[in-house]
Amino acid sequence: MIKILKLTKDNRGLAYSCLQEKGMWGNEEHQESLSFTYKEFETDFSAYAATYNGESAGHAIIINSKPPFSPVQSENSIFVHCLYVVNKFRNKGIGRQLMNLIEKDALDMGKDMIFVQSISNEWMKKDFFIKREYKAIEDDGINFILMKKLNKISKFSFVKHEDHSIKAERDSIVINYNPLCPVMISHYRRFVQKLREEIPNIKITENYLICSDDVCKNGEFGIYLNNTPLLINQRRISETIEIIISLRNST
User: Fold this and answer.
1) Does residue 165 surpass a pLDDT of 60?
2) Which parts of the chain fold into alpha helices (H)?
3) Beta-carbon count within 10 A of 203 CB
4) Digit-coded pLDDT (tens) for 83-130
5) Positive or negative, the Cα torsion across 186, 192, 32, 159?
6) Do 147 and 177 share a structural domain?
7) Which residues contact residue 195 at a Cβ distance below 8 angstroms, ignoring those fewer than 6 apart?
8) In this structure, is the dihedral angle defined by the CA atoms of residues 234, 206, 180 and 45, taken in order, positive or negative?
């Protein structure tokens, strides 16, 4: 039996079902992400959890559509930051039921639109959302931003991350961590460790989100070589390092 529940501030840690699946529950990165949400999100943050026959089966994290966590800014809309279903429970309708409740709650709150981002149709597959009547509003071949009208189409704009980015020095790596994603934090830290072993002389700048006076500023989350984003395969870090070595040798 599938159960979907909206989490409170007291139990929002359950919104990281991916960590249980990966054996990372309660680790340093998990605690960092939870601490960040408790500190920075008194409001503008919702989390949902799914169980299947009592087991943790999935989760979703929802925020208001504004930077730095949303690629779209809109005054009365929400952004699905994360929708995840544990591998062994996929194709059972859990993602669909999570989105059903998310959309119902958004309608009840009078939200105008809901936005999602799909990356290479692998992270939060765009086809899943298209079937739910989401429309692609941005497509660069890798990143897809989709939108669904709930009450009305209101004004929105795409976030220009360069307004907040920290420019990299030539022949250097810049890493902008997403504090809401403990899996990404852990993966990027493993990447940094391996990169320093393979290329000891490369300069690496690691940026964590800075929040002050209710304003969060940072560049777009990810890994950059000479300000060019790099796609990192979690299972083949060595391949990314080989690409970096090749690009450095060609300049």
Assistant:
1) no
2) 17-21, 28-40, 94-108, 126-130, 182-198, 237-249
3) 12
4) 999 999 999 999 999 999 999 999 999 999 999 998 765 678 899 999
5) negative
6) no
7) 173, 202, 204, 241, 244
8) negative
Using CA atoms, how far apart are residues 45 and 91, in angstroms rounded to an integer? 27
Rounded mean pLDDT of 168-175?
76
Residue-range definition of the domain harbouring residue 176: 161-249
Residue with tokens 């307004």: 163
User: Do residues 122 and 190 both lie within one domain?
Assistant: no
Residue 166 pLDDT greater than 80, yes or no = no
**Residue 78 CB partners (closer than 8 Å, separation 6+):** 46, 62, 63, 64, 65, 106, 111, 113, 114, 115
For 211-239, the pLDDT digits (tens) are 544 445 545 788 888 777 787 766 678 88
- Give the type of residue at 42: E
Instruction: Kindly report the backbone phi and psi dihedral angles of residue 246, in degrees, each rounded to the nearest multiple of 5, phi listed first.
Output: -65, -40
Q: Give yes or no for a contact between 45 and 179, defined as CB atoms under 8 angstroms apart.
A: no
Q: Is the pTM higher than 0.90?
A: no
Res 167: pLDDT: 57
Segment holding 138, helix H or strand E: strand 135-139
d(C-alpha 62, C-alpha 48), whole Å: 8
d(CA 144, CA 124): 10
For residue 195, the number of C-alpha atoms closer than 13 Å in the C-beta half-sphere is: 25
pLDDT of residue 233: 67
CA gap 158, 238 in Å, rounded? 33
Q: Are residues 59 and 173 in the same domain?
A: no
Structure tokens at 198: 């393979």
